[in-house]
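Spend some time on this chain, tokens included, and walk me through the fold:

. . .
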Amino acid sequence: MISTALIGVSGFARIHLQELLEASRRGRLRIAAATVINPEEEPEKCALLREHGARLFNDYEAMLDAAADDIDLVAIPTGIHLHAPMTIRSLRAGCHVLVEKPAAAILEDLEAMRTAARETGRLAAVAFQHIYAEAAQTIKRLILDGSIGRLERIGLIGFWPRTDRYWRRNGWAGRLRLDDGTPVYDAPFHNAFAHFLNLTAFFAGPTFGRSAIPTVAAARAWRVRPIESCDTVTAVGRFGDAGPRFDLHLSHACRKHRSPELALEGTGGRIVWDTGGSGAEITDAAGTRVLDVPLLSRQAMWDAVVDRIQGGDTLVCDLDIAGAQLVFAHRLFDALKTHTWADPESHNHEGDRLLVIPGVEAAFEAAYRSGTLADL
């Protein structure tokens, strides 16, 4: 059985903890160790981990030094700027890794992670969970099989309102670099919506296990609060000289919640995937139907990673697939000129302050329908 260690239990790491506990109950893995830097704030989680036989440490390097021989897989659900050093240290200790998305903050870190994975022969998987979903893999096969003809356009839209609480949740939200110069590059397309940027590149890829990297033709971004990065972005471009066009329209400075949706248009049909759960509608020569397969399963992600470690050939989101998202994101960063919205609307959203760009939803919906760059 795969022995697993977890770095962190608070913030988003609580999701990894819940998933590890579920996978343990299903007999897919056992929890061997965990790093908890704030045990006094998480006594219940610490007790639960000890009940499952996990050794607890207050430093991840101390955990690796003491317990690496008993760890097959390290889960790293930490801040973006910590992904690379923790992944490399875990790989060098002889462990496989499942690191949260995005893979890293900058391309240099990605290359260092690739080098460590190659030299150690260990797996470095990335928790872009949608890649592991049966729906995403079925859609990719439909594209490659020519079900909708030659893929011509991939459109992406999503609205996820984010209040003051979101931007205050840690010391790096909305930052490009920390005070000491450490790169973070937090942005909607490189954090919350990174999953869907990753899917866009995956669907454009020439083979089942590969993604593609686009050229960004134009991009606009805005922010409604004093952050270094942006909270709203629209962009257009193309994957290669003859590949599909892309357009994306994403915002946290909005009142409306709209689960990310992908429109994949081909010469012989289209697929529209509402990732929020209403399904993927396929229109091709056979007519119109709804894709009846699971749309999202993070347990499928854990199962795929465990299967690969045990010698299987299940698709995982490796550093090549996730790396395409990172290059995509940095090409967006390079193309962006971010504007501060001078007079945002202020609303109460779930008991917290939400700052909104007036009319962003209508403008982005119109651009998504036409496949063009939005203007505000």
